[in-house]
Amino acid sequence: MDSNRDQIEEIRSRLDVVDIVGKYVQLKQAGKNFLGLCPFHTEKTPSFIVSPELQRYKCFGCGASGDIFNFVQNIEHIDFPETLEKLAKEAGVILQKKEINSKYARLEEINKKAAIFFYKELLNPLNKDALQYVLERGITKESIKNFGIGYASDGSKLLSFIQKDTKYSKEELIDSGIFTLKEGKVRSKFYKRIMFPIRSSSGKVIAFTGRVLPGNDFGPKYMNSPETYIYHKKENLYGQYESRQDIRREDLVIFCEGTTDVISAHQIGVKNIVAPLGTALTKEQVEKVSKLSKNILFLFDSDNAGQQALERAFFISQQLDLTTYAATTAPYKDIDELIVKDPKKFKTLISKRIDTFTYLLTENLKDKDLNNLSEYKKFLNWIERMLKNERNRATFSFYVEKVRQIAKINVYDKRLSKGVDPGLNSSHNKATNKEAWAILFTKLILFLENIEFPKNYDLKYFEGEETYDVLKYVKKNKGATRADILNHFENTDLRKIIEDMIFSFSNLQSSIEELDSLYRTIVHDYYARKEREINVKISIAEATGKQKESEKLLKEYQNLTEEKKKYEQNSRL
After folding, report:
1. What sign has the CA pseudo-torsion 236, 242, 243, 248?
2. Which of residues 301 and 94 earns the better pLDDT score?
3. Alpha carbon 290 to chain centroid, angstroms
């Protein structure tokens, strides 16, 4: 048995499960066992049993079971190393530490000392302007302490502070990521910047993010530590240490975009939140926090870049088979602004979150006309791109159903049983018909014995069509000839279309009966399309929890139905 296992067994032998559990749960003896209310779920009748004989616990209500290590880890929402340290201290066992890589340890020491220096400098009365700026940004003194926020004032003072008790080589200082070599001298990378320490999952300072003060135009707005032996951007997240316990407790991790978003959220009690560090979200970052929770809420900025980042995050999560949700900060730019102006809305976004696919689907459908062939094809391509990598059959089926419910399109996959590369088809074929019917209708108009747009016809059924202007001209100019119409559109793109229609029409003339029949088809199609458009919008509103908008759209649908009935009555259909 290795030394680590020996230590675990020694701790287990020194501690009693009844004593450990009894610190959190009121236990009563029941025969040879102890009974109490389960701390892992809500119950009125005790079903939680602790066995001194087995040195284990078990709940017959929720099924939770284990030993002292499992209990402390779950009740405290901490990882196993922390649990081991906590119980070792209680048992009086000195843990044998693994041999530390001295090179990495010294780099961590430099970063830790730098964090201490920066923190002290921010609280130094000589730097009151820097502190005032931080406070004006809405960051409290408590957050300054909890996140170790500091200020990089004078580079030479920083170097002296770090070298005070322990001397570090030039190479070590450079490798720490805090210093650079300029004109043969070691100089600080950060100057007159608010400093945000980046901690590893175990709480060690491994890097920094520095923000310039207003009026300082030297360098970028935000400057991050470079890649070092102890810091890799693609693997780390801001807030990963500070938020770890709440992520476990809430069984949800919120991904946002910036350091101040994380801090602002913590200040209103939302502490299960992290942010990437000056880079696009990576698979490594998602994989890292997925060990704490398999449930993720992506809350990126409301601009185009934020929405593109959300799609990328969705694809990454698909690879890891995670349950993901999404929300938007709109109309506010980011979480920081949202919390300042409407903190209640921020918490509502979290509690009423919707799954990422449904969110992306509703966003993609906004301002789209699925009756337009080009937009319809683009939408189908988007659906295929979003679904093609989904390997979980249950999740795939859920997404397919969402497309059917919201977009009113059936997604069919003949290889669904294999869970790969979904093919798409749909009962929707009106997009092509709509355009073809408008062209044919215009042809029939042009070849009437007396060219006119009948008085009982309504132009609104042709709005948005390529030949709308031609029909509008005919309506205003009763008796115009084909030559008149062609000349009127001489210097426009419509001339060629009109010309092609004239040359391609095989009959000598059209009849009003043909026109009436086609007109009725176009009108019926118009109402069918409008009903579908409103239905899609209602589905989007309902899926995103917008009740007032849903009610407004329902009224619009009712008005459309009434309008359709009047048309049918007037046309005796």
Report:
1. positive
2. 94
3. 15
